[in-house]
Every structure is written in structure tokens, then in C-alpha cells.
Amino acid sequence: DIQMTQSPSSLSASVGDRVTLTCRASQSISSYLNWYHQEPGKAPKLLIYAASTLQTGVPSRFSGSVSGTDFTLTITSLQPEDFATYYCQQSYSTPYTFGQGTKLEIK
Amino acid sequence: QVQLQESGPGLVKPSETLSLTCTVSGGSISNYYWTWIRQTPGKGLEWIGYFYYSGSIDYNPSLKSRVTILLDMSKNQFSLKVNSVTPADTALYYCARMCGGSRWYTLDHWGRGALVTVSP
Fold first, then answer.
1. What residue of B is the nearest CA neighbor of A92?
2. How confident is the model over A49-85, as pLDDT tens digits?
3. pLDDT under 70 in chain B at which residues?
4. What is the mean pLDDT of residues A86-103?
5. CA B12 centroid distance within chain
6. Would you give the DSSP letter of residue A96?
7. b or e along B13-43 (b: 16 or more beta carbons within 10 Å of the residue's beta carbon)?
8. Three-state SS string across A36-91, please?
9. Whether A87 contacts chain B with CB within 8 A
């Protein structure tokens, strides 16, 4: 199985801050990487697919990039609704696997 | 707007079979991969498997011997069965729609989740 490792596991930030979350794949997965965010008590919601393409309706303050097996999700100017847990997921091969998540908390 | 809703017993005894159904509304069950995922505090999000409308199936090898996913196109539903459950199968179970092709797959619609507890 392809292991997805996210860092940090938690992050404290303030409204208006810029944050970067990282996801590393245990082997090359090209750009077959999706990002989801999950608010407490809700299902995950697709944010970014193919490493850098925003899902319809996702604000432009979100962006994604890839360098080798390292993927980043950047949020500029954090908004209150952005404080949630973020997961990466590879679709390169089954079993599709998720990272353990990064919990973004309000400082 | 496509919506998914899980239903089924919230409590299952050890060694018995966990059964969940996902009802899809607002869209056809054709042309997509209908997927089950579960979430636990310890293991996080775990992909269980999918049933493609054309009949192809793929399961997580860690669960393959105990899992069955079926599609009922006449009812716009798909189902999950997990045999011989143990407390380790206690989880929040999500049904989801996966779309795409050639590895560009995304889980673009999810149900709200169904909590299943395995306990005597």
C-alpha cells in the first residue's frame, strides 16, 4: 500500500494567516493526489484534485502544488470556516489511501 | 444535486454481519464508482472498496475476505456487508461517489456517515 504522511498533525493559526500543509507519498504517485477538508460532525469534502485543481466552488485562497512525492496545500488569508481537519488521498493505485490528517485550529 | 444517505443498524454483535445501504438521490447510479469508506479515531480514513456500475469491483486487501459491495440499480442503492465483525470494525461508515478515470479519481459526493458499533 502507498503510505501518505501528513505534517504537521495539528496547527494553530489566526484568521487572516497564511498556512501550508504538507503530504508526502511513500512512492511516486505523479499528481494523483486529492485534498479534502472535514468539519466536526460532517463528511469530508473535496477541495483540490489532481494535486492543484480547485473543485468547483472552492475559494481561490486555496491552492495546491507538488514537488516529487511532496504535496502542499496552502491557504492564504484564513477564514473562520477554514478551521477543520485536512486530509490528502492518493488515487494512483488501490487500495486508495489517506493521510492521517492535519487539524487546523484557531490560535 | 446528488445526495447519498447511509442506513442500517447502529449496533452489531461480534462475529455477526454488518449491513449498510446507501441510497442515492438526485442523480443516476450509472457511470460512477460507488464507494465505501470508514473512519476511526485510531486508523483515520480507510477505503473499503467500490462497485463500478458496469460490474467491476475492487476491495481493500485488508478487508477483502470479509467484504461484499453490491449495486441495485433499480433502487438507486448500493450496499456493504462485512462478515465476522469484531470491535475493530467499530467505525463511522461513509458511502461516497467516486468519479473520474485513468487514475484521476475523486470522491466528490459523500453521505453523512453511519456510526456502527460492534459490541455484545
1. B103
2. 999 999 999 999 999 999 999 999 999 999 999 999 9
3. none
4. 97
5. 16
6. P
7. eeeeebbbbbbbeeeebeebbbbbbbbeeee
8. EEECCCCCCEEEEECCCEECCCCCCCEEEEEECCEEEEEECCCCHHHCCEEEEEEC
9. yes
- Spatial distance between the Cα atoms of B104 and B107, rounded to a whole number of angstroms: 10
A29 has which bridge partners?
Answer: none
Q: Three-state DSSP class for B87? A: helix
A91/B100 touch (CB, cutoff 8 Å), yes or no: yes
Are A43 and B46 an interchain contact pair (Cβ–Cβ within 8 Å)? no
- Cβ B81 vs Cβ B67: under 8 Å: yes
Distance from CA of B37 to the nearest CA of A (A): 10
pLDDT at B30: 85
The predicted-structure confidence for A4-62, as pLDDT tens digits, reads as follows 999 999 999 999 999 999 999 999 999 999 999 999 999 999 999 999 999 999 999 99
In angstroms, rounded to a whole number, what is the distance separating the alpha carbons of residues A23 and A73? 8
Partner-chain contact A98 B44, CB within 8 Å: yes
A91 touching chain B per CB within 8 A: yes
Question: Is A98 close to B46, i.e. CB distance below 8 A?
Answer: yes
Taken in order A47, A53, A55, A60, is the CA torsion positive or negative?
positive
